[in-house]
Amino acid sequence: MRKSLGAIAIAVAIMLFAPTFGTVAGAAEGTSDVYVTHGLPLDDAGTIVDVYVNGDRAIDDFAFGRTVGPLALPPGDYAVDIVAGADENNDSPLFSQTIEDLPAGGNFSVVASFSGEGAPILNVFANDTSRTAWWAGPIALHHAAAAPAVDVDLGLFPLTRYWTSFKKEIAGDVVNGDQARYTLPRWFAYTVDVRLANTQGNVLELDNVKVKRNVLTNAYVVGDPSAGTLQVITSTINL
How far, in Å, CA of 73 to CA of 79, rounded? Predict the structure, then answer.
């Protein structure tokens, strides 16, 4: 009976959401809305950095875990330098990267994070900002960690922590740079578990995850599991 109830509950949740990869809803005509998230844990002091865009300092004293935006940016290429904070007296970039061909009318998250191999990079994700029905809310999961492919399980909180039949794999073989948006019933709380692909042990567990109507919750998996810094940063966008 317990397994049957768990299967029914998960089936209901799964029926009410479907993943969306890389879709965009428009911003103001002629520009894109860009959110910048610091997901690069390089030290124990918040890895304070300054962000330069096309040679101009755009963000001062940017601490790990923070999100800035939206920035209204016209279409074009953007040369980005991530520099140790001003109090470090160091103008040499920690790393540099060019964001090419930013279009107009989109909504994007730029996450300072790691590649799958552990190199500092900017991961760029297109946000799906479509609105939801009254009974639902959206959440988008993003792989931006120094980790190989992962599998993601969704469950019902707190039942999942007692009975594994209350969770189900919702994404498999997700690699760095991948994302998926899910629309979930907002009267439940959820668990989200991340596993290395095709393994059983969780490397990251989230409890009591909730969604809100017409508020996109972006969840970025960042850090490096070998350094003990694998974690999730969340930010929200009102739709």
Answer: 13
- Helices and strands: H and E segment counts in the chain: 1, 16
**Residue 149, Ramachandran bin (φ over 0: left; ψ between -120 and 50: alpha; else beta):** beta
1: exposed, middle or buried (Cβ count in 10 Å: 0-12, 13-18, 19+): exposed
Segment 53-85, tens digit of pLDDT: 999 999 999 999 999 989 999 999 999 999 987
Contact between 123 and 36 under an 8 Å Cβ cutoff? The reply is no
pLDDT, tens digit, 9 for 90 and up, residues 101-141:
999 999 999 999 999 999 999 999 999 999 999 999 999 99
Q: Which pTM value belongs to this model?
A: 0.86
CA-wise closest residue to 111 among 157, 158, 178, 167? 178
Q: What is the three-class DSSP state of 37?
A: strand
Separation of alpha carbons 168 and 166, rounded Å:
7
Cα–Cα distance between 12 and 109 in angstroms, integer? 30
Residue 157, φ and ψ in degrees, nearest 5:
-90, 135
Kindly give, in sequence order, each residue whose CB lies less than 8 Å from that of residue 136, ignoring residues fewer than 6 positions away.
16, 17, 183, 184, 185, 186, 211, 213
